[in-house]
Amino acid sequence: MSRNASSDALIAQAKRLHLAETLVDVSRTVAALDSLDEVLASLAAMTTAALRAERATLFLNDTTTNQLYSRSMTDHGPREIRMLNDRGIAGKVFQTGTGMVVNDAYAHPDFNPEVDETTGYGTRQILCGPIRTGRGELIGVAQVLNCLEGEFDDDDLQLLEAMTAQAALALTSGQRDERRRAQAAREMEFVD
To answer: In this structure, are residues 85 and 67 in contact, taking their beta carbons and an 8 Å threshold?
Structure first.
């Protein structure tokens, strides 16, 4: 084996080890969380770190409104972002089920600058992948913004999709729990 082939094999092995360690960390972390908001926040933080990015957002699909939504805590309290599930890069990924690497956001025809205008954030690059359950059901998208080291690539997209697949059970469980609590609250209102 040549020196280059040996070096390439070691790099590939290191990448596989990093992926395995990251996925175990995702599993351990989300399994210990109780609420959907905690899972969303934790997974956003983990994907931001793993993909060397400025920030990440996980959008789940609200089947009653056909909107993608995400919640986060800010200095001013909880904030929810909602958009139609067919708008922007996130909507395109949700509708097609295919991830995208966009390294010039404002030049991309599917980019929706409204979120930047609302939040005051400056998006340059987007890595966006579908979130699927173990059964293949599309439940949302994960969006990572602004790579801190160069540009996003297909390896980054594979890592993002693997991380969200690992957390999909916790996300769907959290959604189910929220729906149950909301239904119970409506029933109590009716009884009162």
So the answer is: yes
